[in-house]
Design brief:
Blueprint (H helix, E strand, L loop, with lengths): L15 E5 L5 E6 L2 E6 L8 E3 L1 E2 L4 E7 L5 E6 L4 E5 L3 E5 L7 E7 L6 E6 L7 E5 L6 E3 L6 E6 L5 E6 L10 E6 L6 E2 L6 E7 L5 E7 L10 E9 L2 E13 L25
Parallel strand pairs: 5-9
Antiparallel strand pairs: 1-2, 2-3, 3-4, 6-7, 7-8, 8-9, 10-11, 11-12, 12-13, 14-15, 15-16, 16-17, 18-19, 19-20, 20-21
Protein name: WD40 repeat protein
Pfam family, one: PD40
Length: 270
């Protein structure tokens, strides 16, 4: 595993949650409620804002459509939208059900979305799967908050972090379950608070974010680690990248399409 390479830095926009374009040429990040593109071969050109018509301010949950031309976006109004990567009009794809919808996964065939459904922020979030414009199905992941659901590249599994294995509030651990539902399998047992498992496109590697013991949620501005593992042996950590960050570092899948690199964001104190 190589050492990290600094691609881009800015003090103008607090950027979060990189996605790698399917053609390998760009990263997509959010910042200041908008979506931005960064050309990997020409990072000195800076960020290019992508303009959408009628889209509320974004949060940091956005995932590319497998068609390589569109992106799904979670907005601050609690809904999920779909738009072209070059901007323009958007369509709302989440239902009007009085709930908040925090997108994290798009199935490999592009037919379904996996998101966290919340109707009361005092109650743990639930894992829901939906066909765009359809009705959601809530999957049973056990007690405790669940977050960060995304499919394996073969579509057979949904990976996520969950508090189902402990009575300690906030002690998230990594897990997976078969699609479309079934027994929840724990992947790692440790004292760190582990969030956002992301598999590489070739299904060989995974990254996740480890917060300090006792962390509740996935806050910003902490000493955290991006960890790399083999999907065949999650407890054995192949590489650790310690940094100052947390919220925004790797909220969504950031692997390159050839599975040789991944992007993450650090927030060093100036």
């Amino acid at each position: 595993m190589a050492e990290p390479e600094l691609l881009f830095e800015t003090t103008d926009v607090l950027i979060e949650a990189p996605n790698w374009s399917l053609d390998g040429s760009s990263l997509f990040v959010n910042g200041n409620g908008a979506l931005w593109r960064l050309d990997i071969d020409s990072p000195r050109r800076g960020l290019t804002r992508i303009h959408f018509d009628g889209l509320p301010d974004l949060n940091n949950d956005h995932v590319l459509d497998p068609d390589g031309q569109h992106i799904y976006l979670s907005a601050m109004d609690g809904h999920i939208y779909r738009g072209r990567l070059d901007g323009g009009t958007v369509e709302r794809v989440s239902p009007t059900d009085g709930k908040w919808h925090f997108l994290h996964g798009v199935s490999p065939d592009g037919e379904r979305l996996a998101y966290v459904e919340i109707d009361d922020f005092a109650v743990p979030g639930r894992l829901a799967v939906i066909e765009p414009y359809g009705s959601p199905t809530v999957l049973d992941t056990g007690p405790g908050h669940v977050d960060g659901p995304e499919w394996s590249p073969d579509g057979n599994w949904i990976y996520f972090n969950t508090e189902a294995f402990t009575d300690d509030p906030g002690h998230a651990q990594l897990a997976r379950m078969p699609d479309p539902g079934g027994p929840v399998q724990r992947l790692v047992a440790g004292n760190t608070v582990d969030w956002f498992p992301h598999l590489s496109p070739d299904s060989r590697w995974a990254t996740y974010l480890a917060f300090p013991p006792g962390t509740v949620g996935h806050p910003a501005d902490l000493d955290v680690e991006v960890r790399v593992v083999s999907v065949d042996n999650w407890p054995s950590i192949l590489q650790r990248y310690p940094l100052f960050g947390g919220q925004g570092t790797i909220n969504v899948n950031s692997w390159s399409p050839d599975s040789t690199r991944f992007a993450f964001i650090a927030y060093p104190i100036a």
